[in-house]
Amino acid sequence: MYNLFKETNIFVVISLSYCTIIMKDRILILLLVVGVIFGCALLIPSCSDDKDLSDHSRVETTGPEAGHLILAGGNLSDTTAYHKFIRLAGGPNVPVVIVTTARTDEEINNPDFYPDQLQRFRRFGFTNFSFLHTRSRDSANSEKFIEPIRQAGGVWFMGGRQWRLVDAYEGTRTLDEFNKVLDRGGVIGGSSAGATILGSYLVRGDTKTNTVMMGDHEEGFGFITNVAVDQHLLAMNRQFDIFEILDVHPHLLGLGLDENTAIVVSGNKFEVMGESYVAVYDGTFYLEIRDKDDWSKVRGEVTVLPKGSRKFYLLKEGMRYDMLSRQVIW
Fold first, then answer.
1. Total-model pTM
2. Do 14 and 101 share a domain, yes or no?
3. Closest by Cα among 206, 207, 257 to 229
4. In which domain, by residue range, is 36 found?
5. Is residue 130 part of a domain?
6. Cα distance between residue 23 and residue 160, in whole Å
7. By C-alpha distance, which of 231, 243, 217, 223 is closest to 276?
8. Mean pLDDT across the chain, nearest whole number?
9. Residues 6 or more apart from 12 whose CB is under 8 A from it?
10. 48 in any annotated domain
11. Which tens digits make up the pLDDT trace of 94-129?
12. What's the number of domains the chain is made of?
């Protein structure tokens, strides 16, 4: 029991279970039925600074406020995702930038590398594009290097190793300009490592090997917040690997992209496109139930999974998902 304040004519004595107000000429006793928890809530903003990260509702996964993202799971031979990228960039006449930095020096220095990539992207429908690459952070901060990004309606990150992109561009003017592409309504996309880098947590970011899920690089560019994105999912039997990350960071939304499959992100929502599936790890299990009398009628059923569950669910082409509310859109 303690005094909150005291004046000439009035003072107040408060405990967690009752409050007594004593006045000069009369005594008024006011009994408040409150519990310890209620008292804690009144007197202390929070009884603990630690959040229960298993409660996904406390952590928001959000996409870009403007512009769009395309994340592909690797081995992208279907031109549909590339055509979508070109349209979102503003059409075939609008310049786009293709970032090759995730590849090895041996690949990039091969005299056939850029001629081969030039032909490859032309086959995908690109007509007005340039390649961008450096290992030098000084170059990544230079006016000359960032100028093509300023003119671009879209940026595409090629696959390779995602940590190379972090080493070259994190904290530089180049990354600032990538963000400005989105701010002016453009599109940023990538395949394999180029998809993982777009998220906040850098899956397989170890410099030694891509089999280490939580390596020496753990932060991506964060165009999507509070998300971990894996790729080549089913083709390489990786569908259970991401649980190693989610066990340590249960607040993250986990996404696994299979090969030749992509998601198109607009705001906080995405839609699946491509021939395979996207795995969702959000602490629930989504199941489609067909009407027993009419199989053309389908309804969704969601079950909250117990802590430590190793279940996930798959989304196919055309299905949509709300990352903010973490649920399938019907």
1. 0.83
2. no
3. 257
4. 2-43
5. yes
6. 76
7. 231
8. 87
9. 3, 4, 5, 6, 19, 20, 21
10. no
11. 999 999 999 999 999 999 999 999 999 999 999 999
12. 2
